[in-house]
């Protein structure tokens, strides 16, 4: 009898939940997929049926494009991987890219850089990955058997997709990430994919924002060159200010962090070097700075932190490195580690490997710039060096970020472009490879406002522009007060 009452109660609750959800759909203007999920979790009984899966943000984002630029024949519209409407178009482009990696094209031929650009200026979809990959690595991160992958391009970062017609299948253009003159066009069988040109208008309708790649604008600034795919745009969004916090300030948290690097934290030697805590063991030493910067260095390359039992593949090593960073973060926070791999994955996979990751908050990157007495400059949230499956160097600016109100971005794209061109002009043949919106963290405790960020070819640093009142140089040398670096 008791079991029957429980079953009856459960059925009644489910029925009530269904009625409430239906009313919301009928009279509440509908629900987005995310809203349905959140709403269901809050319902009695039903909420207990949902279990949050642990999401590996850095691993998941390795296979997702950074942005997709759609040209419907009259205008360009850009979608970034944090946009709500990103997934539908990414699902279609992802199928095509995976088929290319499986070797399912029927023909290919070389194309010039100008032909590559002409394809983007016509009805097309431009897909930009977050970093450059070897073909084998891209196959691995996208879950594709690379046995038949094309071998014409050694490093891949972006693609151009041309729609199918009644007579031809989809075309895909690929260029070498390090040699723009090495590009090819591949054709799929007509029956492989249906992507008519008219479908692209679905993704651009009701959009009024301006986007245009640099090569199409005709802008050729004096003093610095622009990568052809630097994206001009006119939006100045309101963005959240971020308050940074140091999550390893407490002694017990320090011990948990050190436990990932030392065999026995309790027996490790410790002394203070000014405000820096130094820990020493036979196999290596670690330093913890008051602002949250952690550094570990092995005594030599044979005594690093064991990362994986095998060193059989580059992909497995990168995955193990990500897992290590996530496990370490799990000792200081119950939130997922919100970082993206920001170093190209184009190394050979043998010998010494360098991997960098950067924080990602509210859909925007957080660049790091640390410099000062007593430690090497740091240009990423996480930097690690791996030799034969062992971590021999690990650095992380431990950071938690909390939103605090919103502010309007200062300056527009053109102002930022002028600022960076003027600052870089003193260098020899500088090439600006990207300009975008993000945050810059210099290790202090003051709130971070969104700003313009720029990357320069051959330079590991990210540069920032925060508005006219903060004008200064972006030359990486002696900077004015607005570009001073903060010791942590």
Beta-strand segment tally: 27
Q: Supply the number of structural domains.
A: 4
**Distance N to C terminus:** 66 Å
The number of distinct helices, counting runs of at least 4 residues, comes to: 11
Helical residues, percent: 10-25%
Average pLDDT confidence is 85
Any idea what the radius of gyration is? 25 Å
Secondary-structure-derived class = alpha+beta
Which overall shape is indicated by the principal axes computed on the Cα atoms?
Answer: globular
- Strand portion: 25-35%
Can you summarize the main beta sheet?
14 strands, mixed
Describe the 3D structure.
The protein is α+β, with helices and mostly antiparallel strands. The chain is built from 11 helices and 27 strands. Strands 9, 12, 13, 14, 15, 16, 17, 18, 19, 22, 23, 25, 26 and 27 form a 14-stranded mixed β-sheet that branches. The chain has a 7-stranded antiparallel β-sheet with strand order 2-1-4-5-6-7-3, sandwiched between helices. It is globular and about 75 Å long. Residues 1-53 and 470-488 have low confidence and may be disordered.
